[in-house]
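User: Can you model how fe (ii) ion sits in this protein?
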Amino acid sequence: MYTQSFNVPDDAVLKQVKPVASTEPPELMARFDARIDADGRIEPQDWMPEAYRKTLVRQISQHAHSEIVGMLPEGNWISRAPSLKRKAILIAKVQDEGGHGLYLYSAAETLGVARGDLLDALHSGKAKYSSIFNYPTLNWADVGVIGWLVDGAAIMNQIPLCRCSYGPYARAMVRVCKEESFHQRQGYEALLVMMKGNQAQKDMVQDAVNRYWWKCLAMFGPPDADSPNSVQGMRWGIKRISNDDLRQKFIDATVPQAKVLGITLPDPDLKWNEARQHYDYGQIDWTEFWNTVNGNGPCNKERLATRVKAHNDGAWVRDAALAHARKQQQRNMKEAA
Ligand SMILES: [Fe+2]
Ligand SMILES: [Fe+2]
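Assistant: Here's the modeled complex, given as structure tokens:
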């Protein structure tokens, strides 16, 4: 399965990407570029170009939002898990996703933004999150398929981020990837068990794969030719592998796993290409992808409403924590006086 050891491109390749023109002070900019070229880390106290900071705030907060919205489709199945063992695993997995959200909001805060503002942007529909979570989970096999394919795709995306140039993001990703690896394995194992079951169970797995396969391929983002921000992200050491290359890696890794499982991936064009030493695959429906990203997927409104309600219902917890912190501070000041 996936590990954290597969190769990321050589730094020599990344250095071929030319620095992008900037209006920042040239001396500071030169120092920043030199740090990036040396594959050094940028830390919160370091000077950084405003565009780099903004890009990171957007990417890290979108990532954080995806983690906490990602709790919802699977959380839906906790009360209906088929056994105590599956329920315990699923609770642990969904709780991990909440933890990932917390590390990432904390990483975003080191860039000088307030968590409350980031959450407001999510709740008002201004901020984006991964469109994969705007689809319903219709049968128990969806939980296994989400672990196998959605967490599997997330790992492909996130392993290179363990070497991201921004220190707090890179460090958060190391732990996140270890936990995602458990998520992927538990999903695949649950499906293996179902595929040894009766025909109805096998049909549920195939149905879930049919509904999720293409959406997982779209998780890597638009084709490189339509992804103008990628070059800048590469130059800054934020992005290390292009969308299309990550997608190809995911497909090449997943086809043999699908064979072991005994399911068919729903793509008649999926064929091994001897010359390329990769699998060829069919056309992704980008119209559907953009439609969902822009708020018109089957569950966008429901997901957002659930998040807003949870946030509002939790107001008393935040108020109580703040009141406690204030009281503690007053007590400490009194003792110090
Ligand atoms: Fe996660
Ligand atoms: Fe996960």
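A couple of observations from the model: The CA atoms of residues 34 and 40 lie 9 Å apart. Strands lie at 271-273, 278-280.
User: Helpful, thanks.
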